[in-house]
């Protein structure tokens, strides 16, 4: 057991262990972008994405209205980290200049391969075992910058089709949790899953 005394702290970030997602979007010229992120959750077929408003992913989603939420397996963490310092925004926004550089083609930069999506224009990422194709619905600003412009936003998208690698599918429409191993972002470190502990009463497989 860990020590049970507590300390009040103010962590710089609160990535307390969420799956990594790679959001693919298209810009107005038909150029495909990849935005690594981990602030994503699902309820039914709606997904909420927490996105910085000065990123290309946010801009493309709001203007082009479509994306694919590609869920990588744990073994892709090095490819993801190799595009972590890149942005598809040109010019690079002032507040990202110190840490980020512009890259038009993050597929090549990260060694990712495109595959055609079924219902949306942005390509899916080959090798990501789960690909959720989605359309933009709305966004709600969560915070504003000094000039009053939205800084970060909760973007709601609606999933229109799901593609899963056959190896992780069981029966017709279920994901086999024994086979699906998401990449977890745990306070800025990458982790795979630990061992199976149990299941909820609602689990059908
Ligand atoms: C593992 C990981 C998780 C991240 N999570 C988020 C996130 O949840 N929301 C976000 O806006 N940016 C997140 N980022 C940062 C973006 O990837 C970064 O701002 C990137 O430049 C966005 O690219 P874009 O401007 O081409 O969209 C994350 C980065 C990594 C590597």
Compact overview of the structure:
With 205 residues, this protein is mainly beta. The chain has helices at 56-64, 77-81, 106-110; strands spanning 16-19, 21-26, 32-37, 40-43, 46-52, 66-71, 86-87, 101-102, 113-115, 124-126, 130-144, 150-164, 169-170, 174-175, 184-186, 189-191.
Describe it.
The strands form 5 sheets. A 7-stranded antiparallel sheet has the order 3-2-6-11-12-5-4, covered by helices on one side. A 3-stranded antiparallel sheet has the order 1-15-16, with no helix packed on it. It has one domain: Electron Transport, Fmn-binding Protein, Chain A (Pnp Oxidase, Chain A), CATH 2.30.110. The radius of gyration is 18 Å and the shape is globular. The model has no long low-confidence stretch (mean pLDDT 96). It has 205 residues and is mainly beta. The protein is built from 3 helices and 16 strands. The site of flavin mononucleotide has 20 residues, from strand 3, strand 5 and helix 1.
Topology, pairings included?
Layout lengths: L15 E4 L1 E6 L5 E6 L2 E4 L2 E7 L3 H9 L1 E6 L5 H5 L4 E2 L13 E2 L3 H5 L2 E3 L8 E3 L3 E15 L5 E15 L4 E2 L3 E2 L8 E3 L2 E3 L14
Parallel strand pairs: 7-8
Antiparallel strand pairs: 1-15, 2-3, 2-6, 4-5, 5-12, 6-11, 9-10, 11-12, 13-14, 15-16
Bound molecules: flavin mononucleotide.
């Amino acid at each position: 057991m860990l020590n049970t005394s507590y300390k009040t702290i103010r962590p710089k970030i609160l990535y307390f262990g969420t799956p990594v997602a790679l959001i693919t979007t298209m810009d107005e010229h038909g150029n495909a972008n990849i935005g690594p992120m981990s602030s994503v959750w699902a309820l039914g077929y709606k997904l909420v994405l927490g996105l910085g408003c000065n990123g290309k992913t946010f801009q493309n989603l709001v203007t082009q209205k479509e994306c694919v939420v590609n869920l990588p397996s744990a073994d892709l963490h090095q490819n993801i980290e190799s595009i972590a310092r890149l942005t598809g925004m040109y010019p690079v926004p002032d507040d990202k200049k110190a840490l980020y550089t512009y890259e038009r083609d993050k597929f090549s930069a990260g060694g990712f391969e495109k595959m055609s999506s079924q219902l949306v224009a942005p390509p899916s990422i080959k090798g990501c075992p789960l690909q959720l194709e989605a359309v933009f619905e709305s966004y709600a600003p969560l915070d504003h910058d000094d000039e009053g412009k939205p800084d970060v936003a909760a973007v709601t998208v609606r999933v229109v089709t799901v593609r899963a690698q056959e190896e992780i599918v069981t029966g017709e429409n279920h994901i086999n949790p024994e086979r699906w191993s998401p990449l977890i972002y745990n306070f800025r470190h990458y982790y795979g899953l630990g061992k199976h502990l149990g299941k909820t009463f609602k689990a059908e497989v």
